[in-house]
Amino acid sequence: MSRMLDVSDDVRAEIGDEEADRLLAGENAPGSYDCTSCRTPGDSGQEATSTVLFVGEETAVLAFAHATCIPSQVVPVSEEQLQGAVRSITASQDGSAGGPDALPEQAVLGVTSGLVLIEGELRPALVVEPTAAVARPGSQDGDEFLPLLIEQGFTPVADLKAVPEVLPGWSVLLAAGQLHAVLQPGTNGGGPVAWWQAHRPLQVTDGWRAAANKSQKILVLAAPVGSIGRQPREDLLRGALDKAAANGRLVAATMPLAGT
Length: 260
Description:
alpha/beta; 4-stranded mixed sheet
């Protein structure tokens, strides 16, 4: 049975055309899996699914995720992290067929687009949530995702009643109606660089794109892992955002739109 799998060019290059074709044909891909991003169940026979390849120095682990959570991509991780994931997978296997679907504790930024009602107007928004705790560079302790963003100029929000200030030097790149990247200022006066970049351009709804083209500004909301989750409807997304804000787990910034 064929699967609704997306195998990116980067993943195909790592695993080879033969293995990629077997996955797409459903030979080596699991039907059901736990999403490596939001950790909820998925079914590659019923919904679009991304292949995510975690690559260490000597080991590689193939995982699966809802395509709405993260795109298919290759994620470099330390060999120690990957070996720990492999041990965890081996210990939990029950003899059933299918590839590993556990996530090494390496953060990948999941980005979701949606319209958020603020001050009586639907605003185009991007919600950013990592798949794991984000430690400060050089450290492996604690989740510093929000403090790091606040240091970059994001604003803590206790509610979604007002539009946050524009973050200088940052922008959201939309090209041919698809989301490509969130850009941040380069170092030492250099040009903008990607803070987040889609391995494959992400589709946005017509309503989102129309709102973005009208306002030329994008609301970017960010929360630590486990704060928002994968919400199938915008009303549920808004509820999760309000809860995260009330719990002090949400930061925000407004960014100009680059492209159309």
